[in-house]
Write a structure and sequence with these properties.
This protein has about 290 residues and is mainly beta. It has helices spanning about 1-20, 65, 75-80, and strands spanning about 30, 40-50, 55-60, 85, 90-105, 110-120, 125-135, 135-165, 165-190, 195-220, 225-245, 255-280, 285. The radius of gyration is 35 Å and the shape is rod-shaped.
Length: about 290
Amino acid sequence: MKKVVVGLAAAMLSTLAAQAADMPVKAPMAAAPPCLWCGFYVGLNAGYVRTDNGMSVVSTPTPDATLGVVPGVSEGLAALSTGGLPVGRTDGFIGGAQAGYNWAAGRFLAGIEADIQGLSNNRTTGTLVNSAVVVGSLVTSTQTGSMSTSYLGTVRGRVGLLATPNWLLYVTGGLAYGQVNATNTLAQTGANGFIGAGSVSITDTRAGWTIGGGGEWMIAPKWSVKAEYLHYDLGSVRFTNGATGTPASNFFVGQVFQTNAISASFRGDIVRAGVNYHFGGPVVARY
């Protein structure tokens, strides 16, 4: 019996070995090529910016009793300096650098990008001139405002679709920030010898929002070019300008006869081109 068992075992082992030799060998796991768009990238950008700033003023008069004048004087003067200043639009150059990171899933791409750039020729100015008779005397009020943005940066999310392996179409939006500057100057003169003036300048760092979209083309391994549009809005800066009488006129010398509450809003549109260098994405295993 022992010899029979040993013989059967040997026969089974021989059969299994033969079957194993005849089985096809599984191909080794293949690696997919690196993701063209995935991973970190850095680049430069340049283009056109149109600023669309605005400045408005609401003036509050000092009570006439406090100034020691007849009723209607400070109210009339304040009314002349209330209104909007047509600071309008200006066209200029914008340029800087960006860096970001992309993730891809099939034809869909998501990422985050940060950039910072300087602006040229973006100072806007406007003048508000009003004349009226104030308690029997003709008064002319001239108010000038100026606004500019020193630099502009964004931190944005990007969501896109790969129309082809080399073409990306995307929308983008997020935080916008920048350093803004504004000046307001008021000069009022009356036919009775009255002279009043005030001036103030501010610099502030503002945060707001931006939204836009664009397209990007992988022109060579690790290199892409893009065209992009962004609208940005940094919100409004609020500050005050107190107007006092000048010694030359002997009216309200050293006294604030009106206080101007000024609101300056900063927004604009950007059209720019850029170039990016991609450090390369991970190699994804393919089974």
